[in-house]
From TrEMBL:
It comes from Actinomycetospora straminea. Residues 12-72 form the HTH tetR-type domain. Residues 35-54 bind DNA. It comes from the Bacteria. Keywords: DNA-binding. This is TetR family transcriptional regulator. Transmembrane segments: none annotated. The keyword Thylakoid does not apply.
Length: 185
């Protein structure tokens, strides 16, 4: 099950270059308080150029969310190759728990929270729901018998463990908790 989020290859070379630079900045600094002027300065551009290339700040946020989703879907594809549900759950957790993925996961959490709390049709609209659907589809592909409740529970355990990991850094405790749940599948 290969995914695409439809960002790469669109727009001018300069737009792609600035999108990648802005994405690297957002990975490091997060979404909170993202302002065009400091972002533009940090990536060697100007607010006017960003507005021209992305249409608006919301357009830039949408492009950054799509870029982030590309990375997230690559993870779904990478961990989803073969195996039963418990094996896939273990691979997902191993990826989530790896320290080198913290920046992407903090960014995901911030975007997920914006999507849940910001009503309307702004740039965050639907991000959380799409994330849930992506992961549910991955888990469904690895169930011998379709059991939505089992998938929801596994996803809830993984998401909850991720939240605790990002908050505490206590990987040992959370590895044990996830392993205990996976043993029940």
């Amino acid at each position: 099950m290969k995914h695409t989020a439809g960002v790469t290859g669109n727009g001018s070379a300069r737009q792609q270059e600035l999108l990648e630079a802005a994405y690297a900045w957002v990975l490091e600094h997060g979404w909170a308080g993202m302002s065009l002027r400091p972002l533009a300065e940090a990536i060697g551009s100007s607010p006017r150029v960003l507005l021209f290339l992305f249409g608006s700040k919301d357009g830039l946020v949408r492009a950054l969310l799509a870029r982030s989703r590309t990375d997230q879907l690559a993870v779904v594809d990478a961990v989803g190759e073969g195996g039963e549900l418990a094996e896939v759950g273990a691979r997902v957790w191993a990826w989530l728990a790896a320290p080198e993925h913290r920046a992407l996961l903090r960014l995901w959490l911030e975007a997920y929270t914006h999507s849940v709390t910001d009503a309307g049709d702004g740039p965050w609209a639907g991000f959380a729901a799409r994330t849930v659907a992506d992961w549910d589809a991955l888990l469904a592909a690895h169930q011998a018998v379709d059991d939505p409740a089992q998938r929801v529970l596994l996803l809830a355990v993984l998401r909850g463990a991720l939240l605790d990991l990002l908050a505490t850094g206590d990987a040992e405790r959370l590895d044990a908790a996830v392993a205990a749940h996976l043993a029940t599948l």
